[in-house]
Structures are given as C-alpha cells and as structure tokens.
Design brief:
The chain contains 4 helices and 13 strands. It has 188 residues and is an alpha+beta fold. The longest helix has 11 residues, at 53-63. It is globular, with a radius of gyration of 16 Å. It binds fe (ii) ion. Fe (ii) ion (FE2) is lined by residues 91, 93, 97, 136, 160.
Length: 188
C-alpha cells in the first residue's frame, strides 16, 4: 500500500486518490496501475521490459522518454551501500525521474518549493514522476529490495546534482509498509 506522510505536520495518507491529489499540488505525478502481473524474481530485465511494453510505450508517449531500463537491487547486490549513498542525499536532475515499481518497496522524500517535505513509500504497481529540478532523495526500505522500470529523456541518462544541504539527515527513512522496519537511525 502506498503511504504518503508529511513528517512535520503529522499527516499520513493511504488512499490513492488523496495521495495523487496532494502530490499533484506539489508538481509530482503519481498513479497506481492495475493489474500487475506476478513475475518471477529471477526474470531477466529484458523480459520484464517485454512484459511491460504497453505501459512503457504509454509513458514514452506522455513524457517524451526515449529509453527504459530496469533497476534491480537486493541485499546481495554488489556495492549496494555505495549505490544507495548516491540516492539518499538531497539532489535534483535535469530530467524527470520516472519510476514504475515492479516489485519491492522504496521511500522517496520530496522537498517542494511550495510546501513541507513529503515522504512517499512506493510499492508494486506505483508510478511516480519527479519532474526535473525537484529536490528529492530516495532510500530503500528495511528489506533492501526494489525492482523498477526507469525511463529517460536522453540517452545520457541520470545525473544527480547534489545540494549538500544535509536536510536529508533530519528525516528518518522509515517505511511503514507490511512490516515496520526502520532502515537506520536519523543520524546517518
Ligand atoms: Fe534522483
């Protein structure tokens, strides 16, 4: 279940419509697409892209994306901590960050210009678009597993521009999903 929280205002939303509406007001697109086929955890990325071809084509049409790939991380991924360290501090990109979650979970923090910082816990079937220039950061949940389709507007792909604000250190990356598993302490 997708969960949106506004930590500084003690707000928690769980309904897709309310979450979509709130996020839309701060410029973030969110949708939940059903049905999502059950796929084997061992399925190679090329086959996942084939299974989701229709959805990917729809997204490409909407956002002018030209390429798609699969990000697939789990506790056995080599260099996982170093990879996470690139995502979990405040940054922006000069293209949209679009993720369609195939399996697993993750936690986005969004730092909008026009409102408080929001956390969104995404899971299978969730589609999120963080527009270019939006400040954000991303953590895995306690099970450290996510498989997602990524879409890109240029073949050069995804480059983070860090703010070095350290504001991310003030927010504990806690997932509230099926099992409550804190990832690590707020003083990372
Ligand atoms: Fe990002």
């Amino acid at each position: 279940m997708v969960i949106l929280r506004i930590p500084n205002e003690n707000v928690l939303l769980e309904e897709h419509d309310k979450i979509r509406s709130y996020l839309s007001n701060i410029g973030i697109d969110y949708e939940h697409w059903e049905p999502v086929p059950a796929i084997s955890p061992d399925l190679p990325p090329e086959q996942i892209l084939t299974i989701y071809e229709k959805q990917i084509d729809e997204l490409k049409k909407r956002g002018g994306y030209i390429t798609a790939d699969i990000i697939d991380v789990n506790p056995n991924t080599p260099g996982l901590d170093a990879m996470l360290a690139k995502f979990n501090v405040e940054h922006s990109h000069n293209e949209d960050e679009v993720r369609y979650i195939v399996s697993g979970r993750g936690l986005f923090h969004i730092h909008p210009d026009n409102g408080p910082i929001v956390t969104i816990e995404v899971e299978q079937g969730d589609l999120i678009r963080v527009p270019r220039g939006t400040l954000h950061w991303f953590d895995l949940c306690g099970d450290r597993h996510i498989r997602a389709i990524r879409l890109f507007q240029s073949s050069s792909g995804w480059t983070p521009f860090y703010t070095n604000s350290k504001i991310d250190q003030r927010y504990e990356p806690v997932c509230w999903g099926p099992t409550y598993i804190p990832l690590h302490s707020p003083t990372k």
